[in-house]
Amino acid sequence: MTSNTPLWTAAALEAVTGGTLHGAVGTITGASIDTRTLAPGDLFFAIRGEARDGHDFVRAALDKGAGAAVVAAGRAAGFDGPVLAVPGSGTDPVLDAMTRLGRAARARTAAQVVAVTGSVGKTGTKEALRHVLAAQGATHASVASYNNHWGVPLTLARMPADTRFGVFEVGMNHAREIVPLAAQVRPDVALVTTVEPVHSEHFASLSAIADAKGEIFSGLRTGGVAVINRDNPSFPRLHAHALASAAGRIVTFGEHEEADVRARRIVLRPDLSVVDAVVMGRPVTYQLGTPGRHTALNSLGVMAVVHSLGADLARAALSLAALRPPVGRGERTALHLEDGAAFLVDESYNANPASVRAALAALAAIETGPRGRRIAVLGDMLELGAAGAAHHRDLAAAVADNAVDLVFTAGTLMGHLFEALPVSRRGLAAGTAADLIAPLEKILRPGDAVMVKGSNGIRMGRIVEALKARYASPPARRDASAAP
Predict the structure, then answer these.
(1) Residue 479: is it exposed, middle or buried by C-beta count within 10 angstroms (0-12/13-18/19+)?
(2) Structural domain span for residue 42
């Protein structure tokens, strides 16, 4: 979509939302809820967040060039710029209007739409699908992890009418949260990457988490395709949800001998993987530009979706070679120390028991230098409920199995892992991520491989940012830039 192509006309905005436009509306070429990232031409939705009311930022949005702002009818009199005043008596009439606009965007497009959920790997899988499908047609996908009650309708509202493929990430923290989101997306293909003990403080059992993930199939269009991980222990439960849906077909993926898309062999290398697979009876071998066994297995789900859409498998296989990890999900950076280079693996976006184990396994595959060590820097895994301490202690076995030399921890919960480790593997246990920056900088040496991971609330990204800022350039260049 070019900048002068309207995403929404003024007439469509009023018709879909039931609102009334005031002022001269500019050309609407996008949609936003955040003035920090708003682009000229965006339609700004003044939704109410947990801490802020979007109405407080309407003036800033208009000053930045928003085509118009969507506001509650009762607040419209306070603004003199182009606004769409929407009626409603609910908790947030602006969010309701955005949802109506998202539904209208879905209804007007002929795009083939994919919905992705799962306890682990949904964002990476969504990005992989965006990557391979973009090579085959106009593709629209969720930004970052816009997968909740505002992220899904916002992504829908941004979707151009001429989109060929739509890829939507759908998340949840509680039961029944996916149902309304799936109803908005109405996917042609719905994929569940895996089911693991994530957000377990809100669920009584792993089966309950599987049921919540299985809600994705409730939104399938009649005759759609349900794609399920055949290796996961929750497969029977997910399969039952798919059978109860409008799906016309169920496609499975994994290493299981009965999987429709099956890995015959996975070759893991430090910077990539090679997958020898069978896709619906057809042999396909491809290189994956992201390392790690977990990403290789999720790529089978990607191939299952590509096949289900009727897209070109061969082109998808070629595209996967150029795939790179999203920021915070395995991105790799060289750290230029005084006497050589170390290696940073940024897994800081989020964490749960399964993803931490996968990250430790990926760290084990990295070849260190002659004096190099594998260093894991781990922050608390949140939302695990009463079993949180045990989940953290249980990571000690994965640390040993993957030959991790040193472990640094941030947070009270990760302190349980630290105590479970032998003294030889203990780096430092700290209260916060920021407390680990200086100690890490002090002990780093050439050849080290450092992996940083933790839940978002622990802000492990601070460590990544600090290490990149200090060691992004070679010492000589740093010295030159510091010279008077």
Answers:
(1) exposed
(2) 10-90
Query: Does residue 238 contact residue 213 with C-beta atoms inside 8 Å?
Result: yes
pLDDT at 3: 43
305-352 pLDDT, tens digit per residue, is: 999 999 999 999 999 999 988 778 888 899 999 989 999 999 998 899
CATH number at residue 297: 3.40.1190.10
Q: Are residues 128 and 198 in the same domain?
A: yes
Residue % of the chain over a pLDDT of 70:
97
pTM of the model: 0.86
Q: What are phi and psi of 178, to 5 degrees?
A: -75, -30
Beta bridge partners of 337: none
Q: What is the distance between the alpha carbons of residues 107 and 239, in angstroms, rounded to a whole number? A: 28
Residues 161 and 300 reside in one and the same domain:
yes
Report the pLDDT value the prediction gives residue 4, as an integer from 0 to 100: 56
Nearest to residue 192, comparing CAs of 239, 153, 150? 239
Specify whether 61 is located in the same domain as 83.
Answer: yes
Q: Parallel, antiparallel, or unpaired: how do β-strands 341-347 and 331-336 relate?
A: antiparallel
Where are the strands (E) in 142-260, listed by range? 165-169, 189-192, 225-229, 249-254
Contacts of 79 (CB under 8 A, 6+ apart): 22, 58, 59, 62, 69, 71
The position carrying tokens 């120390």 is 337
| Cβ contact 417:427 at 8 Å | no
